[in-house]
Specification:
The chain is mainly α. The protein folds into 3 domains: 126 residues, no CATH class; 53 residues, no CATH class; 74 residues. Helix content is 75%, strand content 0%. The chain is built from 10 helices and no strands. Helix 8 crosses helix 9 and helix 8 packs parallel to helix 10. The N terminus is likely disordered.
């Protein structure tokens, strides 16, 4: 059985986590954390007072057992709580009932604070989710129209803002902090980054590199030559430029080529297609 102090401690944590999780200035303005803590402190004092009075209650019960008190209210309590005549059992049952009453009182106090706030808090949470979804829709729209993800270094203010928003969501998701502590946000984000339409924009550097290498391999297999950097075809030109960059990076052991795994993959590729890299 949890003692009252543990119950109060758990309640403290619950209140604190509720405020932190919602992270709402509106909530903190409406009912400050200090106000909640004051209510809890009052209840702690009540708990202490009632627990101290248990000894007096036990003494009164002992007197009643000896028929030295005839108060009807106490007699009814005894009839309600005990299954036998032993004082020890009565005392244990009274203590149990008292502690349960204290815990219920704490819960009732918490409900008095929480119930008036519950509806506006839920409304606030729904509003936050709605705003988050609208931002996500704007991110999707940009990607659909530009075939790339927003950069947080973009010169356009709104695109730069969206790029920073994406980076923030990624960090929150990895660390399970802020909004990404909540399942609803995590699920929405996972659905987005795992969507076949968008997942290519959220690959790790290694995953992206491997996919580009496979595209180059496919081009060479089909055309028996390297993709030219001067091609009029936009994708082929990009593959040619990427290939040339990798050759330079490998030579200088820089950027992605500073990664041993990628260097090994590149060396395997060069050896497999060495007839196309005679000058390197």
């Amino acid at each position: 059985m949890r003692n009252p102090d543990a119950c109060v401690s758990a309640l403290d944590k619950d209140v604190d986590e509720t405020i932190t999780a919602l992270n709402s200035k509106e909530l903190i303005t409406k009912v400050t954390k200090n106000k909640l803590e004051a209510l809890l402190n009052d209840e702690r004092n009540n708990v202490t007072t009632v627990l101290k009075s248990l000894d007096s209650i036990q003494q009164m019960l002992k007197l009643m057992e000896k028929r030295e008190m005839n108060d009807g209210w106490w007699i009814n309590i005894i009839k309600l709580l005990r299954h036998n005549e032993r004082t020890k059992t009565i005392t244990a049952r009274v203590k149990l009932a008292s502690i349960k009453a204290i815990i219920n009182k704490i819960k009732n106090m918490y409900n008095l604070v929480w119930t008036p706030l519950r509806r506006p808090l839920l409304s606030l949470l729904k509003d936050n989710i709605k705003k988050w979804k609208l931002t996500l829709d704007e991110v999707k729209k940009y990607i659909d129209e530009n075939d790339k993800r927003q950069s947080e270094h973009d010169e356009t203010k709104e695109i730069k803002k969206q790029g920073k928003w994406i980076t923030q969501q990624q960090q929150n998701y990895r660390q399970k902090i802020k909004n990404m502590k909540h399942k609803i946000y995590r699920k929405l984000w996972e659905d987005f980054i795992n969507d076949d339409k968008y997942k290519k924009y959220f690959l790790s550097n290694k995953e992206e590199w491997v996919i580009k290498l496979e595209c180059v391999k496919k081009y060479i297999d089909e055309n028996k030559k390297r993709p030219p950097q001067t091609s009029k075809n936009k994708n082929i030109k990009k593959h040619g430029q990427w290939l040339n960059n990798q050759l330079n990076n490998y030579k200088n052991k820089q950027k992605t080529m500073s990664n041993k795994t990628i260097r090994h993959l590149w060396e395997d590729f060069i050896n497999q297609y060495k007839i196309y890299f005679k000058t390197h």
